[in-house]
Amino acid sequence: MDWMGYLHEALPGAGQNVLLMAAIVIPLMIVLEVARELKILDWAARRMSPLMGFSRLSPQAAFPLLVGIIFGIAYGAGVLIEEARSGRLDWKDIFLINIFLSVCHAVVEDTALFMAVGANGPVILLGRLIAAVLITWLISRTAWLERENLRHGAPGEVKSGGVNC
Amino acid sequence: MLTAATFKTGFQRGLFTTWKLAKVIVPVYLMVTLLKYTPVMGLVAGFFEPLMHFFGLPGEASLVLVLGKVLNLYAALGAISSLELTGREITIIATMLLLSHNLPVESAVSAGTGVSAIWITVFRLGISVISGLLLNLML
């Protein structure tokens, strides 16, 4: 095996990777922190809540949805669990939000990182958003969803899947 | 209210996140690059070529997809930066992975909010495959 060739490629390559990641992630985290501080997410969620009806979601779904879209599934799920416990969201809301987020979450960070290695930013971002909106809307219109929602009972009665909450 | 502390916190988060990413990206990158210098990469590429063809991807891309789905996006990124892929191929891989990555962990998180882990995984794999096929036709 060509060890010299390998080291010659791998070592500088690894360093470049780290620098590239840092150059993207550090400014990104600063921007997100500023947004968090200025409560931009709360403002955006309030503006977005009328749109929730499009997929038969409660207005309160806007905030956990936005948190998940921007910050990622772990944060989104955290907010979601809290909203569910407080009874502000019913089973249908939680299910649809999960569907949406599983397709489209952490969009800022993920899109930036993949653009850095050569992907077409608009394509991957739009692809995810469109897929998420479409799929969520489709599922929200099914009779199956209504039946399941009734079966799962009143708001606040979230049955955990057995994983740490 | 914006203060210097805000920026400092953001900066520290940035450093911490970079470290978190580097811990995954660097070892994967080193390992995939190593494989390129052995016959293994050629074997894997050849074996998966017929399947990857449906997505408009070369055989090596199978490695990226598996790393992304089983591990996480950062492992996939580490592999991508080691292989020579065109922008179009990276875009297709990116979309497929963005729709289904880190499956073991993320489905467990979703399950914690009351949604079946198995169905979410099947769902995400499904749309991942569909998106790859579609993008291959459209791009």
| Envelope shape of chain A | elongated
- Assign a percent range to the helix content of chain A: over 70%
The low-pLDDT segments of chain A are 160-165
SSE-based structural type of chain B: mainly alpha
Question: How many helix segments of chain A?
Answer: 8
Q: Calculate the terminal CA-CA distance of chain A, rounded to whole Å.
A: 49 Å
Strand content of chain B: under 5%
How many discrete domains of chain B? 1
- Into which percent range does the helicity of residues of chain B fall? over 70%
* Rg from alpha-carbon coordinates of chain B: 17 Å
Average pLDDT of chain B, to the nearest integer?
Answer: 90
The largest pleated sheet of chain A is described as: none
Q: What general form of chain B does the structure show?
A: globular
Strand/helix succession of chain B: HHHHHHH
Number of helices of chain B: 7
Radius of gyration of chain A: 20 Å
Count of discrete structural domains of chain A = 2
- Quote the distance from N terminus to C terminus of chain B: 45 Å
Structural class determined from secondary elements of chain A: mainly alpha
Quaternary organization: heterodimer
Structural account:
The complex is a heterodimer of chains A (165) and B (139). In chain A, 36% of the residues are buried. Residues 160-165 of chain A have low confidence and may be disordered. Chain A has helices spanning 3-37, 40-48, 62-71, 73-85, 91-103, 107-116, 121-140, 143-151. Chain A folds into two domains: 1-38; 39-151, no CATH class. Chain A is mainly alpha-helical and 165 residues long. Chain B is mostly helical and 139 residues long. Chain B has one domain. Helix content of chain B is 80%, strand content 0%. Chain B contains seven helices and no strands. Chain B has helices at residues 4-36, 39-53, 61-70, 73-80, 87-99, 103-112, 117-138. In chain B, helix 1 packs across helix 4 (73-80) and helix 3 packs antiparallel against helix 4 (73-80). Chain B is globular, with a radius of gyration of 17 Å. Classes of the chains: A mainly alpha (165), B mainly alpha (139). Chains A and B meet through helix 1, helix 4, helix 5, helix 6 and helix 7 of A and helix 1, helix 4, helix 5, helix 6 and helix 7 of B.
